[in-house]
Known about the structure:
Largest sheet: 6 strands, parallel
Shape: globular
Bound molecules: pantoate
Structural class: alpha/beta
Strand order of the largest sheet: 1-4-3-2-5-6
Amino acid sequence: MKIVSSIEELRDQLRGQLRTAFVPTMGNLHEGHLSLMRLAKRHGDPVVASIFVNRLQFGPNEDFDKYPRTLQDDAEKLEKEGVYVLFAPTEKDMYPEPQEYRVLPPDGLGNTLEGEFRPGFFTGVTTVVMKLFSCVQPRVAVFGKKDYQQLMIVRNMARQFALPTEIIGAETYRAEDGLALSSRNGYLSATERTEAPVLFQTLNKVAEEVRAGRKEVAQLEQQAMTSLAQRHWQPDYVSIRRRIDLQPPSAADMEQGEPLVVLAAAKLGNTRLIDNLEI
Length: 279
Ligand code: PAF
């Protein structure tokens, strides 16, 4: 596996490749990421991974500085997965001058859910993803469904800009107790780690109620938030949305069996976890 940090070297390595499958990451790789690499391998060749902790998508009080950086370990894991090139740019490589041109997701999708609680987050994501796509020029790119809203925003961006990149969504990789794997799980204390699966259990309860025919969306959401708060979580949201556009379902949607997804974000101690479940 070649590890390159400059955009020029990356382009040299990938010249003439027409079927590149790309997996962008921020590193600190776990089994979830590796499952994305395996899916990428089924959709293209060569597989290119990137590791870049993108300052643009972190708020001023978020964990940019303490985000785990484990490049050596990550590179070993990627090598074993048969990744052809690892693009691991420095901030100077990626942003040699202030990144003044940005990609702005639409209000309805970009400012709700994660966008409401992390202002500017999705602009940071779409800007770096657009730039990474421009560097790698992939035919396909793989994103995890764990970041459901991110996947939808990137997919819509690719469609609206007519990018020649197909966006593939990968199922969320879970620990045996149901906790969705995430680099941020590493921040949890041992006690918090035993509590953490409750987030997914809560989503399952909401999904079960909806499947059983309950239609009072606001009540179900509030019930779930309250039960998390009672267990000392600080929920930002538990929200039932339409899968198609992540907007709240109408009464008619609930009557007509519109495909839904329930999404949640909540803090456990100092760690903010997100998860979702298609209903
Ligand atoms: O999901 C992530 O790890 C990041 O948001 C991404 C897509 C690599 C962009 O920095």
